[in-house]
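Help needed: design a sequence for this.
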């Protein structure tokens, strides 16, 4: 068993895809005559695609047959993927490679733990796929964050005890999931929103190598 393992959320931690989710949901919301704002989009962070559509229908006071629901899910994802198609390494958030390089150099196992079903193509697009020893995403889990399932599976695949896993997350549900899994949680973003995290940083530029050495026990 490895001493420690690091688990990264994708959207909002490694890349800023929230803006593309926003544009794709906004387009669908227009069809529902609903003014979807950036504030609404906050509610969608870390939340599965299906649950997001449930929330949107609720906000728009709309209902859908099962068939219509599925059509809208496909439509939203098609529009989202059109944005993803154009992504490249320039969209990696600042200093993420610094942290990943440090972990790789020290042979520390790295997992992705994301609710997205598009995680693999996104990592390919930004050229980071090779850093990850395992990818646990929306295709691998049955229970969404704040359930710890996604991170517990990641820990198992990395062969690291959950209490020795360190999770980077930008969503409240993700911090709750890490805490529920008995892992060390690191909030990336607004500390007031992510106040349940064990540590808080606005972004990876605030994380120095000494802090990582301490966490990684190297
Ligand atoms: C991440 C994002 C959410 C998104 C979810 C599913 O958790 O933060 O906003 O809804 O992934 O993404 P997907 O790519 O499967 O639609
Ligand atoms: Mg996220």
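Sure. Designed sequence:
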């Amino acid at each position: 068993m490895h001493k420690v393992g690091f688990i990264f959320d994708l959207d909002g931690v490694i890349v800023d895809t929230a803006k593309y989710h926003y544009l794709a949901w906004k387009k669908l919301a227009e069809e529902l005559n609903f003014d979807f704002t950036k504030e609404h989009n906050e509610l969608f962070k870390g939340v599965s695609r299906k649950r997001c559509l449930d929330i949107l229908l609720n906000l728009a006071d709309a209902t859908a047959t099962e068939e219509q629901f599925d059509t809208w899910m496909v439509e939203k994802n098609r529009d989202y993927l059109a944005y993803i198609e154009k992504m490249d390494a320039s969209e990696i958030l600042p200093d993420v490679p610094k942290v990943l390089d440090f972990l790789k150099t020290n042979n520390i196992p790295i997992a992705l733990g994301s609710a997205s079903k598009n995680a693999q193509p996104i990592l390919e697009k930004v050229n980071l796929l090779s850093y990850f020893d395992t990818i646990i995403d929306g295709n691998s889990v049955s229970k969404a964050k704040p359930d710890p399932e996604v991170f517990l599976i990641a820990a198992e695949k990395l062969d690291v005890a959950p209490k020795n896993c360190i999770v980077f997350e930008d969503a409240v549900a993700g911090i709750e999931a890490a805490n529920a899994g008995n892992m060390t949680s690191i909030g990336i973003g607004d500390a007031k929103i992510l106040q349940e995290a064990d540590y808080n940083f606005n972004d990876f530029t605030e994380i120095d190598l000494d802090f990582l050495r301490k966490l990684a026990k190297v």
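The chain has a mean pLDDT of 96.
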